[in-house]
Amino acid sequence: MVNWKKGRGKLGVFDPLIGNWICNKGSKDRMNPECIRSYKYALGKSYIIADITWVLGDKNYEDHTIIGLDDSKIITFWSFTSDGKNSTGEFSEVSDIHELAFGFEANMPAGIARQAFWPDETEGFHWTVESKTKKGWNRFVQQHFVKYEK
């Protein structure tokens, strides 16, 4: 299992993600595309920058996310994507997914969505996105990431 020990400070919970990660390496399947995630601290350890690239054949979909504390000291993300969209969300309770999971919730145009991260039992971590329904959470993406050397 990846070292899932959180670091110091409010953003220390993200320490297990710092580095470069990949899933579906070399995949040409648009339904299971290669995805590279890179997480690093910025401005000391005041923020985390997440750069995500989805390899979709001849075109990539990119996401540049900044994670930090808002004015109320709540862990928040600000996401900007290559299709010109953006979203904001707050740290939220996601332990119903896995006891060590952490994640965010965001109000999206289509409703409430959440993303979560949790350790894999042998290598790397899992990432998922779910939408809130009347019956609970509907998972529509789940990926398993492993360390990646650029």
Provide a concise account of the structure shown:
The chain is an all-beta fold and 150 residues long. 0% of the residues lie in helices and 57% in strands.
Percent helix range: under 10%
Query: Any idea what the shape is?
Result: globular
Total count of domains: 1
Roughly what fraction of the amino acids lie in strands? over 45%
Regarding quaternary structure, what we see is: single chain
Radius of gyration: 15 Å
| Spatial order of the strands forming the largest sheet | 1-2-3-4-5-6-7-8-9-10
Count of beta strands: 10
Separation of termini?
22 Å
Low-confidence stretches: none
Mean pLDDT: 93
What does this structure look like?
- With about 150 residues, the protein is mainly beta.
- The chain has a single domain (about 10-145), classed as Calycin beta-barrel core domain (Lipocalin).
- It has strands spanning about 20-25, 35-40, 45-55, 60-70, 75-80, 85-90, 100-110, 110-120, 125-135, 135-145.
- It has a 10-stranded antiparallel β-barrel.
- The two termini are about 20 Å apart.
- The mean pLDDT is about 95.
What attributes characterize this protein structure?
mainly beta; 10-stranded antiparallel barrel; globular
Topology:
Elements: E1 19-23, E2 34-42, E3 47-56, E4 59-69, E5 75-81, E6 86-92, E7 102-108, E8 111-119, E9 125-133, E10 136-147
Antiparallel strand pairs: 1-2, 1-10, 2-3, 3-4, 4-5, 5-6, 6-7, 7-8, 8-9, 9-10
